[in-house]
Design a protein that fits this description.
Layout (H helix, E strand, L loop, with lengths): L6 H6 L4 E2 L4 H7 L13 H4 L1 H14 L3 E3 L7 H6 L4 H19 L6 E6 L2 H5 L13 H17 L4 E7 L2 H11 L6 E5 L1 E2 L2 E2 L5 H6 L7 E7 L6 H12 L3 E4 L5 E3 L4 E3 L8 H7 L2 E4 L7 H12 L1
Parallel strand pairs: 1-12, 2-3, 3-4, 4-5, 5-8, 8-9, 9-12
Antiparallel strand pairs: 6-7, 10-11
Helix pairs in contact: 4-6, 4-13, 6-8, 8-9
Length: about 300
């Protein structure tokens, strides 16, 4: 259990916190094999020490919020590899415990439990399209059990992240109601629309008026998409904004490789902060060196 001030209170005060970067790329750099439908969540069972080490690398880089390895961890996903429900619950809770242990190596470091979209469980890329053919009610029923389990582990926040669709955002917010844990909502976007094609102003508005939502924004997107998104999120909700884009490289599914150069300039974080961003970090392909540069830019 964290003894730090509540995250919502900290963000409302105008304080900016540095998020970590991509957990998967750090694990890969540590020599971990992530070629599994569970992705980094497999290591909760097979190599938890590697996850703690990856979190610790971001703490050393200056991250003030660690996002857990539960993005792709679901009861359904664990069941597909023969893990029973009790063990799956233990693994979900352990994701928070591992991050908490790494956080202890820093000063005032918080932990956010990652809750990925329904498409992450499918592991077929549909998390970047949305529109799964599931109703809001069905999606809420899918998300609720693992959200409840993660909440039992007492993270500082639930990170409802990489959400491609405003309908799924509504479902995830419903599923998180009553847990007593603050949440942030973060869409993956293409320009000024969700991946499912909804205007961002409308998508952000689903979080307006919900006191449990302490920040709204974007992640797992091109760095160039962040500028407009931060302004739209702040205007639509009046809440602090969260922003953690990818490096700017692009994934080639045929070659199964990242291509192109990086375009995430840590200096841009200063302008995001000026527009209302209070949680700033990186997502895919953003490692500890870039997080260290972000921390320096924001705290200079």
């Amino acid at each position: 259990m964290s003894t730090l001030a509540p995250l919502g209170q900290v963000l409302a005060s105008g304080t900016t916190l540095v998020l970590d970067g991509g957990l998967s790329n750090q694990l890969a750099d540590q020599g971990c094999d992530l070629s599994d439908a569970l992705w980094s969540a497999r290591l909760l069972a097979d190599a938890p020490g590697q996850i703690e080490a990856a979190h610790a690398a971001y703490v050393r880089a200056g991250a003030q919020v660690l996002i857990t390895a539960s993005y792709q961890a679901t009861y359904e996903g664990f069941a597909h590899r023969g893990t029973d429900r009790a063990e799956a619950a233990r693994l979900l809770r352990s994701s928070v415990e591992l991050a908490r242990r790494a956080a202890a190596g820093g000063t005032d470091v918080r932990v956010a439990a990652s809750v990925g979209p329904y498409g992450a469980m499918l592991a077929d890329g549909s998390e970047y399209r949305g529109r799964y053919g599931r109703s809001v009610r069905e999606l809420a029923a899918f998300h609720r059990p693992r959200i409840e389990t993660l909440a039992e582990a007492a993270p500082d926040a639930l990170a409802l992240e990489t959400v491609p669709d405003a309908d799924e955002a509504e479902a995830m917010l419903r599923a998180a109601e009553g847990t007593g844990v603050p949440v942030w909502l973060s869409y993956t976007v293409d320009g000024e629309r969700t991946r499912a094609g909804q205007p961002l102003a409308e998508a952000f508005a689903v979080a307006a008026g919900r006191p449990e939502v302490v920040a709204v924004g974007v992640n797992c997107c091109a760095p160039a998409d962040v500028d407009a998104a931060v302004e739209l999120a702040a205007a639509a909700t009046g809440k602090p904004v969260v922003a953690y884009p990818n490096s700017g490289e692009r994934w080639d599914p045929d070659a199964r490789a990242w291509t192109g150069g990086t375009s995430l300039d840590p200096a841009r974080a200063v302008s995001w902060r000026a527009s209302g961003a209070r949680l700033i970090g990186g997502c895919c392909r953003v490692g500890p060196p870039v997080i260290a540069a972000l921390a320096q830019a924001l705290h200079t």
